[in-house]
Write a structure and sequence with these properties.
mainly alpha
Length: 150
């Protein structure tokens, strides 16, 4: 049985929808006469997106490594950088003002929409556990390199 030919516009519709959603959100923020200030809910949603992207890049790196080791290394590097980005978002989340007196404490019951299914701290700890299984502390602290290894 032959597989149908899939064009670039038909491939990965969920990824294309997620990209379009982020593009629309960024454009709407720029066009707003008075952009809304960044809040914890905004960063929680962005952290969730980064964490899922982190998981996807990990899967792609694992699939690319055996047949294409160079591509696998670059995807593994992207995996590390996404972890670093999500760690910074998590830190920023705790530096924003919250309804509670102690703004650095994770209190999901005090988020404007109530506690999410998986709080940012729980999500971050789970992703951190996955990162530590595959990455060394030296890898996490290594500066980004753009060297092309083929």
């Amino acid at each position: 049985m032959t597989q149908p030919h899939i064009t670039a516009t038909d491939a990965h519709p969920y990824l294309r929808a997620a990209t379009a959603g982020i593009r629309h959100h960024a454009r709407a923020r720029v066009r707003a006469p008075q952009p809304e200030p960044v809040d914890r809910t905004h960063l929680d949603t962005l952290h969730a997106h980064l964490t899922e992207l982190h998981r996807l890049i990990d899967q792609l790196a694992e699939a690319a490594r055996p047949p294409y080791p160079g591509a696998g290394r670059h995807l593994a590097s992207a995996h590390t950088r996404l972890w670093q980005a999500s760690a910074e978002i998590h830190s920023a989340f705790h530096l924003l003002p919250a309804a509670s007196v102690n703004a650095t404490e994770c209190r999901p019951e005090q988020l404007p929409d109530g506690p999410p299914f998986l709080t940012i701290c729980q999500r971050h700890l789970a992703a951190g556990h996955a990162v530590r299984r595959k990455t060394t502390p030296a890898d996490l602290n290594r500066p980004h390199t753009t060297a092309c290894v083929r």
